[in-house]
Amino acid sequence: MAVSDAAFGLFDEQAPRPLADRLRPVTLSEVVGQDHLIRPDAPIGRMLAHDSLVSHILWGPPGTGKTTIARLEANHSGLHFESISAIFSGVTDLRKIFETARQHRTGGQGTLLLVDEIHRFNRSQQDAFLPVVEDGTIILVGATTENPSFELNPALLSRCQVLVLNRLDDEALGALLDRAEATDEQPLKLTTDARAALKTMADGDGRYLLNMVETIQAAEHEGTIDTDILTMLVHRRAPLYDKGQESHYNLISALHKSLRGSDCDAGLYWLARMLAGGEDPHYIARRLTRFAVEDIGLADPNALTQAIAAWQAFERIGPQEGELALAQLVIYLATAPKSNAAYRALSAAMKSAQATGSLAPPRHILNAPTRLLKDIGYGDGYAYDHDARDGFSGQDYFPDGMSRQQFYKPVERGFEREIQKRLDYWARLRDRRQSEQQDAALAERGTEE
User: Fold this and answer.
1) Is 83 helix (H, G, I), strand (E, B) or coil?
2) pLDDT along the chain (449 residues), means of 10
3) Whole-angstrom Cα distance, residue 221 to residue 346?
4) CB within 8 Å of 406: residues ≥ 6 apart
5) CA angle (122 as vertex; 119, 126 as ends), nearest 5
6) 162: which of 203, 264, 308, 391 is 20 to 30 A away, CA to CA?
7) Closest CA to 129 of 159, 105, 167, 162
């Protein structure tokens, strides 16, 4: 469904309008919280100042001014404004808009098309924009709450700038509150704590903040409103979290990196955010188990045991009580010594395996279950380590023609310090065995001579 500036009726000004709509900025200078985009030396400010508006994507959380900015860009540039929602529109609607835009272009006026929730369009629908953006029939402004890198076609993305809107901070929300009170000449009788709580409840969403202000005003509560009364009148905005989209990956990344940085409290915070957002606890447990082997490894071998135990505990005692097991695991992992030596060792071994192709194992470590295999040398010369002095033969187990490699390099933290001592011990024995073998070979050659 498309909406243009000409679509409004004669009596629209007399119809009741929500506070958020009545306070919609009429100039870019009234937009709060997005100075990094709209000030004169910022991307949008420069484009408008030089009359060089190009297609772009406005990416940001709800209630941060994406639609408002698009409207103001059109007004400032003298462009015909069209608006559609990707939720309710299809290719047929787009064709009608493109045709209208061509007619306006013939008359000397360009068209700015705002596509709300543009990430909802599928690939073929997004492809429909390519020719009209390319030839300048429209200037496309896509509004989205999702990461364009994941949701938009590369071809379309390459023709648009991506501008990131900020979540409204405390100062921006405070400015909106002041503006709402001044517009309605009805100051909110909030205590200092309740005023702060109201901004917290908005969670960076200016539209939601103004909707709560309307609710408070409509309640006509007598007397001062403290935080307890406030929570009775309005409800906190649900945290933004989509288990299938970017917030899912952002929060697990924040949890992982907090643990890697040994920040126990930040780890608990991100765990709580994910649980509050409805994330599958089994997914969290799986990622924490991965962390135990990737970022702690043998610096604390018990980390993996703790991860498996916490996962099993959660499964056995259920979600509500089992969340404590996940919290305990987060604390353990955050405070454990860190090492990614095993991770790096596997990566190096994989790289070497790919580079060396199909090199066969040395024949002396191959089993010879048939006479043919034994006749061609399988198992010939294998030294059984338990029969060797110190239980160590020192034989080479790498493929013939490949020099010995060191993939695993333990760190000087936690239990890996002990592992390094073991590796040093085996290395000394290996050098000793090789020296003994060389001496024996020289002696045998001397006897033959």
Assistant:
1) strand
2) 50 68 90 94 94 94 93 94 91 92 93 94 90 93 90 91 93 93 83 91 90 87 88 73 64 93 94 87 94 96 97 90 94 96 94 86 88 86 88 89 91 94 92 83 71
3) 65
4) none
5) 80
6) 203
7) 159
